[in-house]
Design a protein that fits this description.
Mean pLDDT: 83
Low-confidence stretches: none
Number of domains: 1
Helix content: over 70%
CATH topology: Na+/H+ antiporter like fold
Shape: globular
Distance between the termini: 46 Å
Number of strands: 0
Number of helices: 14
Strand content: under 5%
Largest sheet: none
Structural class: mainly alpha
CATH class: Mainly Alpha
Length: 335
């Protein structure tokens, strides 16, 4: 259990949720927080754009079969599982929690943890880096489109001009600006990665506080119980387990090397909390966003624990395989 420790950032998020529950922003304070959140989201996506290397992502597309499999799981298989989970409403999931599950299924993959776990498991790190970066690049467009198709239209709503404007101004414009300026500011961002990481996380905490303040005022805690959280955890675990098992089976069936299989498993089974929380505040209704990001927060912690265990298993198996090969070579040399 010591290896499955809670992500410290999840603790900060939970503390922020607790503060928002006890001291939610109301009235003029809520309005000011809304403006601050808008600026924070723009800054986040500007930094995302400045960090992600379009060149590296496009160069990595030479390995198109691997990236195609990962993108298919990220933006096709996950949304399909989200749609299938609608059958659990209302017996297992409430409609709001299902919408949160559907939202997380539409998100891009993570970048840092996908690369880190692939490295620990001794997989193809270069492929993981390219695939995770490309997933986030196209996720800026694909995630809003998927959320619109699977959530907005299915709940009887329409695509409003205000929503399109918010997506363009808060997400696309800052992201493209970061990409365009990356040539000149990329070095600065790389040198100050740690400090800017605090800016990222602080901005996301601000977004979470604003979202849960809106939710508390709208009475979200009256719709969330311990029982519903347990059922949500089981649903998340079932989706994660299905995707991990499917990526393993598919990668083996398609004849990928062990290193590529590892990259496919860890990049194709993850969802990004860092991108998801800001996207939720733009794409989801303000009063419902607080409750609808609960599945994402729970899924994030679950995927970290499961993938940490799985990465160590891969690493041990790879080490044992190498040791056997060395032993065989030594025996042959003695003969």
């Amino acid at each position: 259990m010591s290896r499955l420790r809670l992500d410290p950032y999840i603790l900060l998020l939970l503390v922020t949720v607790g503060i928002a529950s006890l001291l939610p922003a109301r009235g003029i304070v809520a309005v000011e927080y809304t403006h601050a959140t808008t600026i924070a989201i723009g800054l986040l996506f500007f930094l995302y754009g400045a960090r992600l290397s379009t060149h590296d992502a496009l160069v990595g597309l030479r390995h198109w079969r691997l990236h195609g499999v990962i993108l298919a799981f990220t933006f096709l298989v996950f949304p399909l599982l989200g749609l299938l989970s609608r059958a659990l409403v209302p017996d297992v999931l409430t409609s709001d929690l299902w919408a949160g599950v559907m939202f997380l299924c539409c998100l891009p993959s993570t970048v840092q943890s996908s690369i880190a776990f692939t490295s620990i498991a001794k997989g193809n790190v270069a492929a993981a880096m390219c695939s995770a970066s490309f997933s986030n690049l196209i996720g800026i467009v694909l995630t809003p489109a998927l959320v619109t198709v699977f959530l907005v239209t299915q709940t009887g709503g329409g695509v409003s001009l205000v929503a399109v404007r918010d997506i363009v101004l808060q997400l696309l414009v800052p992201f493209v600006a970061g990409q365009l300026l990356r040539r000149w500011i990329g070095g600065f961002i790389a040198r100050h990665k740690r400090v800017l990481g605090y800016v990222d996380r602080g901005s996301i905490l601000l977004v979470v506080y604003a979202a849960f303040s809106e939710g508390v005022v709208a009475g979200i805690w009256s719709r969330l119980t311990i029982h519903s959280l347990l059922l949500l955890f089981v649903t998340n675990a079932a989706i994660l387990g299905t995707v991990i098992g499917s990526t393993m089976w598919t990668a083996r069936r398609l004849g990928f090397s062990t290193e590529d299989q590892i990259a496919i498993v860890f990049c194709g089974s993850k969802k990004s909390l860092a991108s998801g929380l800001p996207l939720a505040s733009v794409l989801l209704p303000a009063a419902a966003a607080g409750l609808m990001v609960v599945p994402l927060m729970l899924f994030h912690q679950t995927q970290l624990m499961v993938c940490a265990w799985l990465a160590r298993r891969y690493a041990l198996r790879t080490t044992a395989t190498v040791a056997r090969m060395v032993l065989v070579d030594e025996l042959r040399s003695w003969r």
